[in-house]
Amino acid sequence: MGVEEQAFNFTATGIGSVPFLEVDRTCRDILRRLPRMPYWPQFIRKSPLEDMSIQYTEGLPSLSVDQGRRSVFISPETPREEALVSFYESYLAEEVERFAISETGACGLYRLLELLEKEEAVADSFIKGQSVGPLTFAAGVLGPDGKPVLHDPELLEAMTKGLAIKALWQVKRLSQCGRRPVLFFDEPYLSGFGSAFTPVSREQVIDCLSEVIAFLKKRSSALVGIHCCGNTDWAMIAEAKPDIINFDAFGYLDAFLLYPEALGRFLEQGGAIAWGVVPTSEFTGSESVDDLLERLKGGLDRVRQWGFSPEKIAACSLITPSCGMGTMAPEAAARVLDLLSELSERCQKGL
Fold first, then answer.
1. pTM for this entry
2. Which of helix, strand or coil describes residue 222?
């Protein structure tokens, strides 16, 4: 893993989607509130092209997009074999630029980087990006038979490799600002893993996640995280060997901490935990920094009981919202960012 030399010390960052429409203002607010690890925002209300799946379709084989329905499907007009051959030629040659995300699909990425070009480099700083995870993506793309390509081994393999090389393009682009890139693969599909609604095997999940993580880490200095906003098999996530595990610590703290052996090993091997303790879907407006701090302390105390010192826990801890903010009211999302920044500052002063 690649976080051993880092001391995150409760650095704050975001997840991805925002409800705002003002691109420049939002990016400036993120830089002001989250100076050590800003993230580029996904403006899902501004354009369907910023949808978490549509945003990553460019360069992947056989895909068509219905912007009105915000859906992705396998094009019946494109010859499958021809599309796959063309894709693999570019993938194997590592023609990274073919897999770029255009500015029309990620205006926040481009604007944030423009703003960072004008700033002096910050020592020991990061920049965070995100990508839809391969399982979530493949579960949402329908084949000609109406079934998700998650159940088509040939297409699942191609989509997994395609998302891996698109992530490589992203971290190369992010690294140009002089900060160390951090990239989270977002896997909401894995919420409730093991139920009838997620009919994939543990081995499939680990294989897909391990592939994108290993591909990225072999070719870049990026730190790679897995974000899941619901409950899942956290030992399974740890087994895929990400650098960072990000979970909803507001709604699923107790469930997450049911894996002391797997998560303890993960931390011992240099992994980090991003505590999603500032609520989004459960946000009421009555939350205070003191309340959230007490909730976080409850989780940190449990980890300390696994045998980790407070210093070690601080070094391997980040603070995030519980999930993206795209469905929130703008004023509520602004408050979440305030709470996030204030909570991080309080934690850094000592718990």
1. 0.96
2. coil
321's tokens = 């919202």
Q: 3-state class of 72 per DSSP?
A: strand
Q: What does the alpha-carbon distance between residue 273 and residue 268 come to, in Å, rounded to a whole number?
A: 12
What H or E segment, with its residue span, contains residue 226?
A: strand 223-228
Show the tokens assigned to 28.
Answer: 């400036």
348 contacts: CB under 8 Å, gap ≥ 6? 9, 10
Phi then psi dihedrals of residue 146, to 5 deg = 85, 0
| Residues in Cβ contact with 207 at an 8 Å cutoff, skipping those fewer than 6 apart | none
Place of tokens 């500015």: 103
Smallest CA-to-CA distance from 245 within 295, 303, 286, 293 is with: 303
The residues spanned by each domain of the chain are: 11-348
Which residues sit opposite 71 in a β-bridge?
A: 66
Amino acid identity of residue 190, one-letter, is L
What's the order of all strands across the beta sheet hosting 71-74? 63-66, 71-74, 141-142
**CATH number for the domain formed by residue range(s) 11-348:** 3.20.20.210
pLDDT tens digits, one per residue of 276-333: 999 999 999 999 999 999 999 999 999 999 999 999 999 999 999 999 999 999 999 9
Residue that wins the pLDDT comparison between 125 and 3: 125
Tokens for 246, please give them.
């990000």
C-alpha to C-alpha distances, 195 to 155, 189, 190, 281, 307, nearest whole angstrom: 23, 11, 10, 22, 33
DSSP calls for 305-345: HTT--HHHHHHTEEEEESS--TTS-HHHHHHHHHHHHHHHH
Q: Is 4 helix (H, G, I), strand (E, B) or coil?
A: coil
Parallel, antiparallel, or unpaired for β 244-247 and 272-278? parallel
Specify whether the CB–CB gap between 54 and 46 falls below 8 A.
no
Nearest alpha carbon to residue 198 among 151, 248, 142, 132: 151
